[in-house]
Design goal:
Elements lengths: L17 E11 L12 E8 L2 E5 L2 E5 L3 E5 L5 E2 L7 E10 L3 H7 L8 E3 L8 H9 L8 H18 L11 H16 L6 H8 L3 H12 L3 H19 L4 H7 L5 H12 L3 H8 L3
Antiparallel strand pairs: 1-7, 2-5, 2-7, 3-4, 3-6, 5-8
Length: about 280
């Protein structure tokens, strides 16, 4: 007997984050690289030094332990730290998903500085910063990107001012969330109730939102997703029908055959004979 546990990972919102470069900085704040503009987002962890940092038209106080985000197109000027030694670890990121991650961490162009709720060796964020920017390491792109994403995850966990981004269209938000869940979980024996529970909504309310947005019910979408994949398996002759049924969320082959016949008007075996790839 086997026991399998699964945890749904809704990663679609975070896949479009790319790491460009990373490193460490040590020197006086009035060195020639400042002030400057950047076309990507820089996240820096200040390890030494304190003073005032001018980002665009706003002045911000920073100190050792501060996280500072330099947003694209914002002029960065640290001459307020003149004469002091400054040390920092930094990484440069890009991608359409990045603004949402930073907003959830409470970091915006208006509030680009924060101090983590966890410090030192206990901090996941600082640990990721240290490992990523270690000059003794030579990471490949996948490993470096993985550590950068780990850093962002730590930032979300350790921010003192977490916030959820405003959703302008709740219907679109919940329908998209439902679809992502169904596409990931359809091989399991899930129900519409499970989808509604994941979204934190009443089943009837989710059903209304879903039908208004797509023209079909949540249950119909779940069945279509399963049948679409089943047809692909049948066409390729990938496995016996009982195996295909289990692979698309039907532990019982008879229930699968009935559902298939209801959608296509013929049994799965007959459909396979007509459509199987040569």
């Amino acid at each position: 007997m086997a026991e399998i546990t699964t945890q749904f990972c809704d990663s679609a919102s975070y896949t479009e984050v790319s790491l460009s470069q990373y490193g460490r900085f040590l020197g006086d704040a009035d060195t020639p690289i400042l002030p400057f503009l950047n076309e990507r987002t820089i996240i820096a962890y200040i390890t030494a030094g304190s003073g005032t940092m001018k980002l665009g038209n706003s002045l911000h106080s920073v100190e050792a332990g501060s996280i500072a985000v330099f947003f694209p197109g914002v002029c960065i000027n640290c001459t307020g730290l003149e004469g002091q030694q400054v040390a920092a670890m930094w990484l440069e990121l890009d991608g359409p998903a990045l603004p949402e991650v930073l907003t959830r961490a409470g970091l915006t162009p208006q509030k680009p500085i924060l101090n983590l709720t966890v410090s030192g060796e206990q901090s996941e964020t600082i640990s990721a910063f240290t490992r990523l920017t270690d000059p003794e390491q030579d990471y490949g792109p996948l490993r470096a990107t993985g550590i950068a994403l780990e850093l962002l995850d730590g930032l979300l966990r350790e921010t003192p001012r977490p916030c959820q981004p405003k959703v302008s269209n709740l219907q679109h938000y919940y329908v998209d969330k439902s679809i992502r869940y169904i596409k990931a979980k359809y091989p399991q024996d899930i129900s519409v109730e499970d989808v509604a529970q994941y979204c934190g909504l009443n089943r009837s309310y989710l059903g209304k939102l879903f039908r208004d947005a797509t023209g079909i019910t949540t249950q119909e979408y779940l069945i279509r997703q399963r049948m679409s994949v089943a047809c692909d398996y049948l066409k390729r002759g990938a496995a016996p029908i009982a195996t295909i049924a289990r692979s698309v969320g039907y532990p019982n082959q008879l229930h699968f055959s009935r559902a298939f016949h209801k959608v296509f008007g013929i049994p799965p075996r007959e459909w396979q004979k007509r459509n199987r790839e040569k």
